[in-house]
Amino acid sequence: MEEKKASIGRLSVEVQEGRDILTREDTDKLFELFAFYRPKDPRLRDNALRAVWALTLAPYSVDDVREAVVSYFRTQKYWPDPTDISSRCQQPETPKTQSLPTPTARYIDPAVESLRERWQDLRRQRRAAGVPDTWEETKKAGLTAAAWMDILDERGLAL
């Protein structure tokens, strides 16, 4: 879609063509509607406030904003905040976040994989020879670390 700029006083907002959004002219009409409910309110003449309203309500459709204003004044008599109105509007669709695919295969360093396989082979050989396989088994057998390493070296079962 082609993007255009909508003027809201001194501020500009990027809008997409074909979207029914609130423009500066629509904001002026909205403030005319406010004048029916709050005729002597000094905020009706505040251009900076109009710009803030236009900026805040830009993503919403004109009809939704009008309905929200009327709905607000049915229950409230005070000047609304733009968030009071935007919370009553149908929320614009947020773009769905793209989820990253779950990796199916992880990178495995061939040297690390080779070392892991060698270690597993040594564990099987140690068990078959009746030699303690882990440090925990060595401690349970009452051997010191030096004695265990000597046994592994003698039998060729050290890593």
User: In the residues, how many domains can be counted?
Assistant: 2
**What global shape is seen?**
rod-shaped
Whole-number mean pLDDT: 81
- Helix fraction, binned, reads 40-55%
Strand order of the largest sheet: 1-2
Oligomer: single chain
The ordered H/E elements are EEHHHHHHH
Write down how many β-strands occur, each being a DSSP E stretch of 2 or more residues.
2
Largest sheet: 2 strands, antiparallel
Tell me the strand percentage band: 5-15%
Organism: Flavonifractor plautii (Fusobacterium plautii)
Protein name: Replicative helicase inhibitor G39P N-terminal domain-containing protein
Region (Disordered): 83-103
Biased composition (Polar residues): 84-102
Layout of secondary structure:
Layout: E1 3-8, E2 11-16, H1 24-37, H2 47-57, H3 62-75, H4 82-86, H5 110-129, H6 135-140, H7 145-155
Antiparallel strand pairs: 1-2
Q: What can you tell me about this protein's structure?
A:
This protein has a two-stranded antiparallel sheet. Helices cover 51% and strands 8% of the residues. Residues 1-19 have low confidence and may be disordered. The chain starts with a strand and ends with a helix. With 159 residues, it is mainly alpha-helical. The chain has 2 domains: 3-86, no CATH class; 110-155, no CATH class.
